[in-house]
Amino acid sequence: MRNVTIVADDKVGLLADISYILAKSKINIDSISVEVISAKAIITIGLSDGVRGKQVIEAAGYRVENPEAIVIKFQEKAGELNKITTMLKKEGVDVKGVNILTKDNTTSIAALTVDKHKRATAVLKQYLIINESEY
C-alpha cells in the first residue's frame, strides 16, 4: 500500500469522481482520510498501486502532493510549526521542505519532506492525517 495525497477545491461529488477514476483503472482503495479546511479538501488515500494511482489522478487534472511527503494537521497558532520542527531536530530528522496545503483560523495542514521518513512518521504520529505504519 502506498499513500497518495490529493489537494482539491471541496465540492459535491469530489470523492465520487476520484473513486471512479481509480476504479476505472482497477486500483484498490485500501484506506482513506479526508479533511476539509478553508474550502480545500485534503484526501489521503492508501492505494494498492500508488505509482499508477498518482498517474491516473494527475491525468484527470487533480493536484497530487509528493508521495514521499508526510501530511500533518496542527493548530493554527504561533509556535506550532516550530514545535513540530524542533521535535524532528531532536530526533536527527532533517526537514527538506514544508508546504502549507491549507489553513483556517484554527487548523493548518502541511506536507513535510524529510530525510528520514520512517523516523519522522514515528515522531509526528499525533499529527498525522492518516496512519502511515506501512512505511
UniProtKB/TrEMBL annotation:
Domain called ACT: residue spans: 3-95
Top-rank taxon: Archaea
InterPro entries reported in the protein's UniProt record: ACT-like_dom_sf, ACT_dom
Pfam families, sorted: ACT
Span of the signal peptide: none
Protein name in UniProt: ACT domain protein
Taxonomic placement: Archaea, Candidatus Micrarchaeota, Candidatus Micrarchaeia, Candidatus Anstonellales, Candidatus Bilamarchaeaceae
